[in-house]
Amino acid sequence: MTNATLSRRLFLAGAATALTVPAMPRAVFAQAAPATGPFTLPQLGYAFNALEPHIDAMTMEIHSQRHHGAFVTNLNNFAKDHGIIGSTPIAKLLAEWQQLPEAIRMGAKNSLGGHANHAMFWQIMTPGGAKAPEGDLKAAIDRDLGGFDKMKADFNGAGGRVFGSGWVFVTVNKDGKLALVSKPGQDNPMMDGQMVLFGNDVWEHAYYLKYQNRRPEYLANWWNVANWSKIGERYAAAKAGKLAI
Ligand code: MN
Fold this sequence. Notes:
The chain is mostly helical and 245 residues long. It has helices at residues 3-16, 57-81, 83-87, 90-95, 105-123, 135-145, 148-161, 208-211, 215-222, 228-239; strands spanning 166-172, 178-184, 195-201. The chain is built from ten helices and three strands. Manganese (II) ion binds next to helix 2.
């Protein structure tokens, strides 16, 4: 069904029941199919409902398909007129975003950051797996962030203090040193030459359907779905110079 057909049906339905409160038109959520190009929407690797009860299925579906999908569409559109967008590693584009063509600079920065942030985010969550860091990663957390419990408390605190929309990250450098950092909007630590070990999305769209204004509760529950196997792999990749996003 096209959006035009949908809108017409809703209009007719509304006219026939003028005294009832009209349903929210679904067209509000409609989005063009992602334009084809060098950027693609990654697969989650698990079902939309796999992270319940901590993250609900509708949030996962809308977030991964529509919110992330919009960044992919935007990047493919930018790439049509600006080949550099599609042909340069995303870490380099983010590190040098201030040299992007002025006409697309802010939009491209936001969409590059949004794509990198979300592609990382889907990877580092899982319905099962190790419940805590192990091995080299555990040792680095103990050394640089005061241990697993302190890291979680500090991460939750930093995520709670993000004003409005943004992200909280643990970054890693090529020597394996970790740091906690938060960012506004879709900014990403690659803009500062850092690599992301893992991060959590504190935009309301990441939690509002289930948690409404209770961001601290979302942050606390989120650790139940952290994928420590994958985060451990990312730690090893960062030290080997092979972490791409
Ligand atoms: Mn998001």
